[in-house]
Amino acid sequence: MQTTLRRELHFEGVGLHTGAACAAWVEPAPPNLGLRFLVDGTEIPATADYVVDTRRATVIGCDGVSVSTTEHLLSALFAMGVCNARIRLEGPEVPALDGSAAQFVGAILEAGTVEQTAVRDAFELEAPCVIERGDRMVLAFPAADFRVRFVADFPHPIGTQYLDVEITPQRYVEEIAPARTFAYLHEIEALRADGLARGGSLDNALVFAPAGPMQPLRWPDEAVRHKVLDLIGDLALLGAWPRCEVVAIKSGHSLHASLTQALRASARAPHAG
Fold first, then answer.
1. Counts of helices then strands in the chain (DSSP H, E)
2. What's the rounded Cα separation, in Å, for the pair 83 and 113?
């Protein structure tokens, strides 16, 4: 069945990319509303139809209003089974907090959820779907449950990492949610020149210097775990629970958006289940 939050959640902090002060209120919502952002009086459904930018973050928007860095909060809500919520936002993006989804998940667990009267929508894939760009690709295959296999391949000192995980609330809490967003030290100046990572710091991002990570790792393969966290947040834009296996090879927000848009186009009316 569909669920919503038992009570409102509140988060505030700096935006990872803009550096601006941001706040979010995540409110319970009625059945069949889905996940929606409310920004400056404009409501933006959290679906792939509204993706407007995918440079280092997933940005959704409509009518000239947008919200950046949606993937961490959406990842937490989606993986924890929250189907309906309205997210009121002050500022241009979702607060970064510690760069992971751990605080979002902690607040969801503390507040609890309420089962609603409507059946949760499920996306059932009838045939494989492949999105490929050079040596990067993301594939979705029909499956009974939602599973992710992710191959990340980065320059030293991260290297090649692999994670295979069935997405359930318990495994998400234990194995995915605390993984932080990350960057290379030498990238930061270029990112900021491009208008990105202006709020990034050692408090909200894992930074890799040539000799290794500048903070203690939460797992040796924290980078690929965060990539899975991002992928789940981007797949939340399906608007339905995916009954499929997703294989991602060196993919990012742009490929994820293309996959989600292709899946939505293949089945505009998800099967109930």
1. 6, 20
2. 10
Tokens 């690709």 identify what position?
Answer: 137
For the sheet containing 35-39, what is the strand order?
Answer: 9-14, 21-28, 85-90, 35-39, 42-45
In the set 17, 72, 226, 253, the catalytic residue is: 253
Q: Contact 12/23 with Cβ under 8 angstroms?
A: yes
Reading the block at residue 227, the tokens are: 């990539």
pLDDT exceeds 70 at position 232: yes
Q: How many angstroms separate the CA atoms of 8 and 28, rounded?
A: 6
The alpha carbon of 129 is separated from its chain's Cα centroid by a whole number of angstroms, namely 20
pLDDT in tens, 2-41: 999 999 999 999 988 888 999 999 999 999 999 999 999 9
Cβ proximity of 6 and 111 under 8 Å: yes
To the query of whether residue 253 is one of the catalytic residues in this protein, the response is: yes
Q: In degrees rounded to 5, what are phi and psi of residue 262?
A: -65, -40
Q: Long-range contact list for 125-134, CB < 8 A, 24+ apart? A: 125/242, 125/243, 125/244, 125/263, 125/266, 126/266, 126/267, 129/259, 129/262, 129/263, 129/266, 131/255, 131/258, 131/259, 131/262, 133/254, 133/255
Cis omega before residue 213 (within 30°)? no
Pick from 259, 243, 249: nearest CA to 228 = 249
Distance of CA 202 to the CA centre of its chain: 21
pLDDT tens digit string along 174-185? 999 999 999 898
